[in-house]
Amino acid sequence: MYLHKGFRLGGAVSKVMPIVHVLSKLGLLFSLLLAVPTLMSYFYHDSAFLVFAYTALTVLLVSCVTWVLTLRFNRELRPRDGFTLVLMLWLAFAVVAAMPIYFYMPSMSFTDAFFEAMSGLTTTGATVISGLDTLAPSVNFWRHMLNWLGGMGIIVLAVAILPMLGVGGTQLFKAEIPGMDKESKMAPRISQVAKRLWFAYALTTAAAFVSLHIAGMGWFDALCHAMSAVALGGFSTHDDSVAYFDSVAVEWTLMFLLSGAVSILPAILLRWATALGGCIGRMKNAAPCCWFCRAVF
Predict the structure, then answer these.
(1) Mean of the pLDDT values across residues 251-260?
(2) Rounded CA separation 143/127 (Å)
(3) How far is Cα 210 from Cα 85, in angstroms, rounded to an integer?
(4) Contact 120, 97 (CB under 8 A)
(5) Residue 249 backbone class (left: φ over 0; alpha: ψ -120 to 50; beta: rest)
(6) CA 13 to chain centre
(7) 208: exposed, middle or buried (Cβ count in 10 Å: 0-12, 13-18, 19+)
(8) How many angstroms separate the CA atoms of 187 and 24, rounded?
(9) What's the per-residue H, E or C state across 42-102?
(10) Torsion angle, CA of 286/194/271/123, rounded to 10 degrees?
(11) Which of 11, 69, 91, 160 has a CA positioned 20 to 30 A from the CA of residue 238?
(12) pTM
């Protein structure tokens, strides 16, 4: 009986370890993402530099050690592995994202820090932090960066990066992305689809950033609100949110929110359908986008 239980335990470990191995590779991506607010903190000379730097180094070291220990379990992911990895990735990234907030604000519990991070990643927009006007710029930026990453989806970002790490991202992509024909190929490779999505997303964010600055926001506020608006995240750098600026121009410019409400996938499908001479099956996938535009305008 004990031998049988040992085999069952060993089988469970062998099933989970390949997923943990991929997760360790994505941990390297997380550490690179943490370098952005670290540099922001260095630029603004705020008190959060060491918090971000130590968090990034810790994630980097843990990921490297885990990668080495699970190297022998490396294999191609199966469909059910994709769903498990999506769950583990969301939870792991939320925990990592909460660490800088938790360590920077000693009075905040880890539960509240985790809530703040998960709220940003899921673009919920709820916050447990007050005094945003005086919050360290790098921490404020990190909140909006989480909003922005969650707006497109950290899974889509992972799929774009995974091939560089020697991992196929098809199963991960299928497990995460709603509202599409999972078997259709919009581009020769799934990773190329993810890169096209992020390019369109980044381009829209850049346009919103410049427009908000022209409308009267400072560079920092414009950047944070552009990431939040396009992601439909709802975060702001001020307690009064957009009302802080008391500007009609800013409010109209934030109509970029509408572009964030339109799925980018139908737009890509429509482009490919046109390029191929008009595939009716693919054109139908763009119908929700067309109906949305008609309802708004």
Answers:
(1) 74
(2) 10
(3) 36
(4) yes
(5) alpha
(6) 28
(7) buried
(8) 28
(9) HHHCCCCHHHHHHHHHHHHHHHHHHHHHCHHHCCCCCHHHHHHHHHHHHHHHHHHHHHHHH
(10) 40
(11) 91
(12) 0.79
Dihedral angle sign, alpha carbons of residues 143, 89, 288, 268: positive
CA-CA distance, 279 to 45, in Å (whole number)? 54
Q: How far apart are CA 212 and CA 121, in angstroms?
A: 23
194 touches 157 (CB < 8 A): yes
Whole-angstrom distance, CA of residue 234 vs CA of residue 277: 40
> What are 101's two structure tokens?
């907030």
Helix axis angle for 190-215 and 154-161, nearest 10°, is: 130
Q: What pLDDT is attached to residue 204?
A: 87
Structure tokens at 145: 């960066």
Which pLDDT value is given to residue 296?
A: 60
CB 131 within 8 A of CB 34: no
Query: pLDDT per residue over 179-199, tens digit each?
Result: 444 455 444 466 677 777 788
**Exposed e or buried b for every residue in 138-176, given b needs 16+ CB within 10 A?**
bbbbbbbbbbbbbbbbbbbbbbbbbbeeebbbbbbbbbb
Q: What letter does residue 247 receive in the DSSP assignment?
A: -
CA distance 110 to 121: 16
C-alpha 178/C-alpha 182 separation (Å) is 9
DSSP tag of 188: S
How long is the chain? 297
Q: What is the DSSP letter of 276?
A: T
Tell me: the pLDDT tens digits for 96-129?
999 999 999 988 999 999 999 999 998 888 899 9
